[in-house]
Amino acid sequence: MLFSIDPTPDFVCIQDFERNDGSEFKAPRIEDLKNHIMLQVYTSGTTGFPKAAEVSMYAYITEVECCRSTEFFKDKDVVLGWNPLTHICGFIIPMIAFLTGAMVVPSTGGLSPKEFVEIAKKHQIIDNASGRQLGPCEVGEITFRAPHLMRGYYKRQDETAQVLDDQRWLRSGDAGCYDRSGQLYIVERLKDMIKCLDEQVAPAEIETLLTQHPLVLEAAVVGIDHPEFGEAPTAFVVIEPSAKGLVSEDELVRLVSG
């Protein structure tokens, strides 16, 4: 059903909807929950054209029930409706909150990330290229399978095949590993990994080392083509303005290689 703010042909006006006492509503009959598409969420990440991820009624209900069963929210909680309804979190999280009896406060906009962090502080709010399952502390691609996953991308079979295999395992595109206690760690986006001397190098790890230097403000690491290494990590570093000439390239190289 499509809604409009003002009276518009072929749309349900919000004002008329609010005045309706509910007597005209009829519950839809859905025969196949797993294949009945409830919504399409458009996604593209930071690359490529938008793709419509098809979410079935079964997947949506499963997601809501999974979160509710883990007591994601409790009936005394107050939940900030941070995302708009056009975002999947803005569509699912309020529903989970409603079903647990929590209060949802819609955001009116204008709350900056900095303000949100201050509020949060105060209130305390795999698989590698061969497909082999990896052991503890081995880095590979994180894959997962669950009833609440999308059925695929709408009319994009090739893109769907790239992320969902025949057994419905979803390739996340994230490199990660787990420790011996089963704790999962996300290392880096696979597309960002640098392939150097047959090793997978995570830019974030080098960036973390560089920013530990007291005079380094920011650091960004990328891979560039190299005739011997395949790709060579290359860092772009911003130094404190007052520290010009006090930090050398050799010093930063030693920091990373040490």
From TrEMBL:
This is Uncharacterized protein. PANTHER family: BCDNA.GH02901, LONG-CHAIN-FATTY-ACID--COA LIGASE. The keyword Protease does not apply. GO terms for cellular component: peroxisome. Residues 31-125 form the AMP-dependent synthetase/ligase domain. It is found in: Peroxisome. Its main location: other. InterPro entries: AMP-bd_C, AMP-bd_C_sf, AMP-dep_synth/lig_dom, ANL_N_sf. It comes from Rhipicephalus sanguineus (Brown dog tick). GO terms for molecular function: CoA-ligase activity. Pfam families: AMP-binding, AMP-binding_C. The lineage of its organism: Eukaryota, Metazoa, Ecdysozoa, Arthropoda, Chelicerata. The keyword tRNA-binding does not apply. Residues 205-256 form the AMP-binding enzyme C-terminal domain. Keywords: Peroxisome.
